[in-house]
Design goal:
By secondary structure, the chain is mainly alpha-helical. Helices cover 60% and strands 8% of the residues. The radius of gyration is 16 Å and the shape is globular.
């Protein structure tokens, strides 16, 4: 375990982390294409690392928050899997405004929709304010501060705006 921690530390030292617009620019350069608005939204939230690092839970993470099998995929491939998964949760997906769909992909990308079937059910029932409140009934929201907490609040605010 100690050797793994040292190796992850060395990997993290040799990579650069980008946030916001800078993350989008770096990723577009790396992938040689312009990101869609929804992809940009995910990258703004996740950031971009031009290598791998150990996240706050010690999980090896690469690129745009890519863990496990996603480490070996491009962001485009990873994004598309999460977009399809998010779209599959909502029968009315095609009727949602683009900014809501983008935010739902952000929620799916981080794993928040998968752990909150009640939020998904409330969205599908059109109970936007209740869905917003339920979305914040979340272990990470209760026990963390900073970036993750603010990210969850942005997601909840997007849901509330649909009411």
């Amino acid at each position: 375990m100690e050797i793994m921690r040292i190796l992850l530390g060395l990997i993290a030292v040799s990579s650069t982390t980008y946030y916001g617009d800078q993350a989008v620019t770096q990723l577009e350069l790396r992938e040689g294409r312009t990101l869609s608005p929804a992809e940009r939204r995910v990258v703004h939230e996740e950031g971009f690392v031009d290598g791998c690092y150990a996240d706050t839970k010690g999980i090896l993470t690469c690129g745009v928050g890519q863990t496990g099998p996603f480490q070996a995929m491009s962001f485009k491939e990873t994004f598309e899997i999460h977009r399809r998964r998010a779209a599959g949760r909502f029968p009315a997906w095609d009727t949602y405004p683009e900014d809501l769909r983008a935010e739902l992909v952000v929620m799916e990308y981080r794993g928040d929709l998968g752990i909150s079937p009640k939020t998904v059910a409330l969205i599908n029932a059109g109970k936007w304010l209740e869905a917003s409140e339920e979305f914040l009934d979340h272990h990470d929201y209760t026990n963390l501060s900073g970036g993750v907490r603010k990210r969850l609040e942005r997601g909840a605010a997007m849901l509330a705006r649909q009411a």
